[in-house]
Design a protein that fits this description.
alpha+beta, 6 strands, globular, six-stranded antiparallel β-sheet
Length: 131
């Protein structure tokens, strides 16, 4: 089953996110389930997702989904800017809506860096650290 594309290639938030994400060693973008995914062997970031709410769901096309250390999840779950994305949340992922005008892009870089380090091969992490 082919999923419909759920993003615009010209979305300024996606363009800015690509500038962050694709700077990591070996990072590549591909489309899965209609959304941009970023990986180095395994996914470490996704643009767009959804959240279960009140028996339904809310689509958040401008969300950044990242894998989060177990020790960090509780703090992010207490932060109203973050949510547990459908399908990914039970596997340690959290999401932040980049459409918020108060988005701190330094924080976005830190979230992506942490997610990358949880999924990338050791040699790629060593290459990142050597930069």
């Amino acid at each position: 089953m082919t999923h419909p594309v759920m993003f615009d290639d010209d979305d300024p938030l996606l363009i800015r996110l690509r500038g962050v994400v694709l700077g990591f060693p070996g990072a590549e973008e591909y489309v899965s389930h209609g959304r941009p995914n970023f990986r180095v062997k395994k996914n470490f970031a996704v643009f767009g997702g959804g959240e279960k709410i009140d028996g339904g769901h809310r689509r958040v096309d401008s969300a950044l989904l990242v894998k989060v250390e177990e020790s960090e999840r509780e703090a992010l779950d207490q932060d109203p800017r973050f949510f547990s994305p459908m399908y990914y949340g039970p596997f340690g992922w959290r999401a932040l809506d980049l459409a918020d005008p108060e988005t701190d892009w330094d924080e976005v870089g830190e979230l992506v860096d942490a997610s990358y380090r949880l999924t990338a091969p050791k040699r790629m992490i060593a290459e990142l650290d050597a930069r």
